[in-house]
């Protein structure tokens, strides 16, 4: 069984859209969003995947969500059928933290009736399941910096960062809120030998105005450091909404 997020009660968050972030930005993609996460980012825009009633970890919205209406469990073959019914042959598995459900994801991908290019979006703390790893074409690794509110010993696991840096399928995407974050990224890149051509920075924000405001200075900083910049295309197009 896979545990998925929902768009509305009882409806799993499986949809077709344009990839909004990272190296595949703008590509037509099929998305499946899983529920549950092992971290708790204070600015997370998908808190409905983990901040259920009774979870008091800090979040800017200070909202909690009923698990029963925001989470649904489905058999892997049923998820595969729903994915295949949509058009794009690029599959983006997101969350939450998808790698918490690695074995079930491997079964789901094996059940797909046609070939997909498979991307996994991960916070970088969980190793891929041995059955899943050979099936993945691209990892979008988004380590969480100090401003996320997560303890560093949970969010920045040295052996995992080193392993991702050595995996040519892995691209790093760092969420940036202030210029101070750029120095933290630079230190991580140096410590773990992250290749600059696989290092993306992205402004933190859940509305177009915030993204544009941060993007102005972040673009210049990115250029100066020789990294890559990514926007949040889906926010500009659809706003901060589920299923987009």
Verbal overview:
The chain is α/β, with parallel strands linked by helices. The chain has one domain (2-238): Aldolase class I (TIM Barrel). Helix content is 30%, strand content 22%. It contains eight helices and eleven strands. It has helices spanning 67-70, 76-84, 102-110, 152-155, 158-166, 180-192, 208-225, 233-238, and strands spanning 2-8, 11-12, 14-18, 28-33, 71-74, 90-94, 117-122, 138-141, 170-176, 199-203, 228-229. It has an eight-stranded mixed beta sheet with strand order 3-4-6-7-8-9-10-11. It has a three-stranded antiparallel beta sheet with strand order 2-1-5. α2 (76-84) crosses α3 (102-110). The longest helix is centred in the last third of the chain and has 18 residues, at 208-225. It is globular and about 45 Å long. The mean pLDDT is 97. This is 7-carboxy-7-deazaguanine synthase. [4Fe-4S] cluster binds at residues 37, 41, 44. Substrate binds at residues 18-20, 33, 94.
């Amino acid at each position: 069984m896979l545990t998925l997020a929902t768009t509305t009660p009882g409806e799993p968050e499986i949809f077709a859209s344009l990839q909004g972030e990272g190296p595949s930005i703008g590509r037509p993609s099929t998305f499946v969003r899983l529920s549950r996460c092992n971290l708790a980012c204070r600015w997370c825009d998908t808190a409905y995947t983990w901040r259920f009633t009774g979870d008091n970890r800090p979040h800017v919205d200070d909202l909690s969500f009923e698990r029963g209406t925001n989470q649904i469990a489905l058999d892997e073959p049923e998820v595969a059928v729903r994915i295949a019914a949509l058009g794009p042959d690029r599959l983006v598995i997101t969350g939450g933290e998808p790698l918490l459900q690695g074995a079930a994801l491997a079964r789901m991908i094996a059940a797909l009736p046609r070939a997909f290019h498979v991307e996994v979006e991960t916070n970088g703390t969980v190793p891929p399941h041995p059955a899943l790893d050979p099936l993945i074409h691209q990892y979008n690794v988004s380590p969480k910096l100090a401003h996320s509110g997560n303890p560093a010993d949970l969010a920045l696991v040295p052996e995992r960062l080193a392993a991702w840096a050595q995996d040519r399928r892995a691209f790093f995407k760092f969420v940036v809120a202030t210029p101070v974050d750029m120095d933290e990224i630079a230190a991580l890149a140096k410590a773990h030998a992250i290749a600059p051509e696989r290092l993306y920075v992205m402004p933190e924000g859940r509305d177009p105005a915030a993204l544009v405001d941060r993007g102005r200075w972040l673009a210049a900083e990115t250029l100066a450091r020789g990294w890559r910049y990514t926007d949040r295309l889906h926010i500009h197009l659809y706003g901060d909404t589920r299923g987009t």
